[in-house]
Specification:
about 5% strand, mainly alpha, two-stranded parallel sheet, about 150 residues, 2 strands, elongated
């Protein structure tokens, strides 16, 4: 195993053409909840009159917490005239306010890759990239972002 790690380090060091793929698990060590943890955190900050409703939604979509989070957002928007999303974002900001990139975020940012692909919903890798590389990372979140991204071929 140690030889494979050394070989991989050499390949990465010598290559300019590789893509790094990573998931939300890298942010867990920085205190960012997984998608299931985020869903539970959102349900816990809801007004008590809404909490039971979405606890049931957890049971309806046990393997897809993103659907529960989307249902909460859409429901809150319709109940609060589009202010539900703003309320939710305001509450979630408190969950992420003090989070900083982990050593793993910084190590990945130091890799000499032109492209990084992630499923992370937080901005910790972007912060680590900026701290490590002294420049902003161009993010593509939706298809509409592609024409505006820097250095995308």
């Amino acid at each position: 195993m140690q030889n494979a790690i050394v070989d991989l380090k050499e390949i990465i060091k010598d290559s300019k053409n590789f893509v790094v793929f990573f998931g939300a698990g890298i942010s867990k060590s920085a205190g960012i909840p997984t998608s299931i943890g985020l869903m539970n955190a959102i349900i816990n900050i809801l007004p008590s009159s809404q909490r039971d409703r979405y606890t049931g939604a957890k049971e309806t979509f046990p393997n897809d917490p993103v659907k529960v989070i989307q249902a909460i957002r859409y429901s809150m928007d319709s109940m609060q005239n589009k202010e539900g999303s703003a309320w939710l974002i305001d509450r979630l900001t408190t969950i992420f306010a003090d989070k900083m990139p982990s050593p793993l975020h910084r190590a990945i940012a130091r890799l000499n890759s032109k492209y990084y692909v992630t499923t992370n919903y937080d901005d910790l890798f972007g912060k680590a990239y900026k701290l490590t590389r002294r420049k902003d990372l161009s993010s593509i979140i939706t298809d509409h972002d592609i024409p505006h991204a820097k250095d995308v071929v």
